[in-house]
Task: structure prediction
Amino acid sequence: MAPKSCQIAHIYCLFFLMMVVCIANRDTDNTVKASKFNKDVCINMVKNEEYKEMKKENNYISTDMNHKKLIVGVVIIHVCFMLIGASGIISTLKEKNIFYGLLINMIYQLTLIIMIGVAMKQYLITSFKKFKADRISVNIKRVLAGVGIAFLLSCITRIIEMTVCSNISVPANQSNVNGYFVDYPILAVIMSVIMGPFTEELIYRGILFRFFKYGELCAVLVTGFLFGTMHMLSSFGNTNILLFLCQWLDYFLSGIFWGFIYKKYKNIWTNISIHGTWNLIGAVMILTKIMLTK
Result:
């Protein structure tokens, strides 16, 4: 990775850690106030559906906050992986054998999945029950609508890219993924369609978005910025600035879109299902292209 890319990776990680500080110092007034309600008031409100929903929400937020160390650990692992990638270690290993790069990515994501499963078990279970409670047809419509909007955003950024840039290339991040599909298609599908969407949505929407204390709209913008920047770290300093900005815009708008999806439905499994389906379509296109060129 180029020196500039390494520098921007450190800036990204610093900004990311600032978000962790916001999480660590998050005012848990909702859970505290809920527990300190006057008993008589609680009795009078127990039949109120809105109160019941608030209590249910606070229950799994409180559970997550009790596992704050694990949650912060998840973010620290993510930051460490970004720094390792910025140092060029992964690139060096991939030059020897591309499998090493794939293996490191899968170990990183598997570690996060295990830690997230422990730290946010109640949240994941509660969210899945809500997701499952909706009719299958409703969830399918949401996924199809989500994929359609993601496709539209991708087309818009691609048109901008072709209009502004003379030389168009694939982002370094996507180029690496394409390489995995060539040599290890099954593992690449598992990583990009299942593990990737799960870890990314839990980190950016399940942790950063949900515990961000400066408003949902601000959370959408900040997490979208971090999401876009994370995907473009390996391209910084290695490509034309206009091309870089156009490619970053693609990921940034995707991050904004995933943020609005979570803002609307308040269910991480809706995000994971739409994100996973979008990546699945991309995986099918990559594999089809590989098969046609052979």
